[in-house]
Amino acid sequence: MRGKSIKLYIMGEKYKSLKTAELSNWTGKAYIGQRKHVQMLQNIEELATPGIYILISEIEDSYQKKVYIGEADEVNKRIAEHFKQKDWWNDFVIFISKDTNLTKSHVRYLERELYEVALKNKTTIETINGNTPPGSKMPVSECDDMSDFNDNIIFVLNNLGIIDFTKTQTNSQNMDNTGKEREVFYLSVPGAKGESVKEAKLMITEGTYRLLTGSFIRKDHVSSFASHNYAKLRRQLEEEGFFESSESESHFKLCKDIDFKSPSAAAAIVRNSSMNGRKEWKLKNGLSLDEFENRQ
Asked: Has residue 209 been placed in a domain?
């Protein structure tokens, strides 16, 4: 895969760190700012056009970010409405087209596609849209163009550290880019006295750590873990049906793959306790994930 350049422009003193971001050979453009910039947006002519936007807030005691994804015909006016109506968010990102070629149908398509990707990223994003965006029907050629546009949106958000997308593909790949089967790492999951030790399984895929379906998940809660930042995520995954009963009274089984930005996060969800995932996840030959990555 070829690299890309992000051009980041810090706007003048009047705007106090409102930023724009662009990619080479891309018609899209991002405006990145905070609540204090909302009034300034009303004076920027190219923002009085169709666009897609994301409202963002940090979640206390969590590694997730709360986001709301929307679209508008005049995106600066919509952000101003949200400023008056919603006080939970602190930051925003707006995406428009520099050549003003985005239509209402385009931004509705982008809104739905970005929303669906965000929903797959349970470990880093809490999506709070009240309803599923309707999307829009377009010719296949335009859908492909908008999918490329959306890939660039995700590229900008990921690489500027605004939002972490651990998963952008819907299919689970067991092969790397060279066609070689990916290595599987294992973590022991103890149970009640007298029960055999179970295992959880993890793969590295496209820079993320994928906890694999069928992994055993410890049921018992460690008291010291209750206040940990991953405890909220663990409860959320359990409530949303990622765990199912198993043949063991001490363990759940994972029924859906989950992608993580950190192997320690995956280990914490599995064992219900804080641990160094880079040391604890190991290949069958005993090589730790940390040692494996240092050899690559």
From this structure: yes
Q: Is residue 164 part of a domain?
A: no
The answer to whether residue 205 sits within a structural domain is yes
- Cα angle: 22, vertex 23, 28; to 5 degrees: 60
Between CA 5 and CA 66 the distance in angstroms is: 28
User: How would residue 223 be classed by pLDDT, with cut points 50, 70 and 90?
Assistant: confident
Structural domain boundaries, residue 246 = 184-295
pTM above 0.85, yes or no: no
Are 79 and 46 within one domain? yes
Task: Look at residue 236 and tell me if it is in a domain.
Answer: yes
Asked whether residue 110 falls in the same domain as residue 227, the answer is no
Residue, of 230 and 139, whose pLDDT is higher:
139
Which long-range contacts link 159-163 to residues 24+ away (Cβ below 8 Å)?
159/6, 160/6, 160/8, 160/21, 160/32, 162/32, 162/56, 162/91, 162/93, 163/54, 163/56, 163/65, 163/67, 163/124, 163/125
pLDDT surpasses 90 at 89: yes
Among residues 55, 59, 56, 57, the alpha carbon closest in space to that of 230 is found at: 59
**Helix ranges, the chain (H):** 38-41, 75-85, 104-120, 140-159, 229-239, 263-271, 277-280, 289-295
Is 233 in contact with 63 (CB distance < 8 Å)?
Answer: yes
| pLDDT reading at 56 higher than 60 | yes
Which pLDDT tens digit goes with each residue over 90-135? Answer: 999 999 999 989 999 999 999 999 999 999 898 899 999 999 999 9
Same domain, 79 and 221: no
